[in-house]
Amino acid sequence: MKGRLVLVAVTMLLVTSISLFAKGPSGASADAAYWVAYWAKPRVVLYGPEEQAFNENMHEITFAHDRFDHALDESTLNADVQWLKAHPDDRFFIEGYASATGTEAYNLNLSGQRAWWVRELLIRKGIAAGRILLAVPWGMRYPACLEDTEECHAKNRVVRFAYYPNLSNTAE
After folding, report:
1. Sheet holding 61-62, edge to edge
2. Using CA atoms in the order 33, 35, 39, 41, what is the torsion angle rounded to 10 degrees?
3. I need a surface site. Which of 86, 110, 143, 152 has the fewest CB within 10 A?
4. Which of helix, strand or coil describes residue 92?
């Protein structure tokens, strides 16, 4: 029994620390490089024309360094609101992100505040709360850029929208 417990403990330790071994030559993890390549590609459409239209018309909301309560481009946010009002059946997730400056805990909190602020703003502007499935913080987990420059950090200070299919309309 003790041998089995030790085996489980060692396995858990190895599984949870795999990212420690996935470092590339520049110090950036292989996982981070994957996400940089992922964000550079067009989104894959799995659920048809509604999802494609959502992906084409909903835009990232950008934020300044250490800010969560003011979008840099209000017109983009207002355009997103107008598009959502014109498509009342679309449901979605709000995903908050932060740059790699600061601690992981700080950035997770900041990205959560950004996602929640966008959620609350959408609701105040007339988007039904039930359409927003989650406002989730990702911190600096899935970067759009890995370089240690201000331009790169700015690309990671965003809120993105992710489509969720309305499966009740298709189940028959």
Report:
1. 61-62, 158-164, 91-96, 132-137
2. 70
3. 86
4. strand
SS3 state of residue 20: helix
By the 8 A CB rule, do 98 and 107 touch? yes
Helix (H) or strand (E) holding 55: helix 49-57
With tokens 């018309």, the residue in question is 57
Where in 27-171 does DSSP place strands (E)?
61-62, 91-96, 132-137, 158-164
Could you tell me the domains of the chain?
Answer: 24-169 (3.30.1330.60)
- Work out the angle at residue 34's Cα, subtended by the Cα atoms of residues 116 and 155, and round it to the nearest 5 degrees: 45
Report the alpha-carbon angle 161-58-64, nearest 5: 70
What is the rounded distance in angstroms from the CA atom of residue 157 to the CA atom of residue 30?
21
Distance CA 101, CA 150 (A): 10
